[in-house]
Amino acid sequence: MDKFSDMTLFVSIVKNQGLAAAGRELGLSPATVTARLQSLEDRYGVKLLNRSTRHISLTDSGAMYHQACLEIIDSVKETENLLQTGTQRSARHT
């Protein structure tokens, strides 16, 4: 998976306080969410979440990554909005 999709997945896990709930939100199986989270942690060589059967919490690295993900996702959304607004303005002036 691409890095942006991984960021979106991670933000969903944190927002929903669980892997299964994030999977439901994104249309992914719990096994897929678990595998992608593990792959993400392996890629960076850090543990992002403390997990138990009933609770997840962010590690220090996870909190830093989560904040960065939120900023990047917001920036992408803002850029998309600017492009769409600019495209609509251009279409009106042609």
Task: Give a summary of the structure in a few sentences.
The protein is mainly alpha-helical and 94 residues long. It has 4 helices and 2 strands, in the order H-H-H-E-E-H. It has one domain (3-88): Orthogonal Bundle (Arc Repressor Mutant, subunit A), CATH 1.10.10.10.
Describe the structure.
Helix content is 74%, strand content 6%. With 94 residues, it is mainly alpha-helical. It has a single domain, classed as Winged helix-like DNA-binding domain superfamily/Winged helix DNA-binding domain (Arc Repressor Mutant, subunit A, Orthogonal Bundle), CATH 1.10.10. It has a two-stranded antiparallel ribbon with strand order 1-2. β1 and β2 form a beta hairpin. The N and C termini lie far apart (39 Å). The mean pLDDT is 92.
Q: Number of DSSP helices?
A: 4
Tell me the structural class: mainly alpha
Fold-level CATH name: Arc Repressor Mutant, subunit A
Order of helices and strands: HHHEEH
Q: Summarize model confidence as the mean pLDDT.
A: 92
Q: How many separate structural domains?
A: 1
The main pleated sheet reads as: 2 strands, antiparallel
Widest sheet, order of strands: 1-2
- Tell me what the CATH architecture is: Orthogonal Bundle
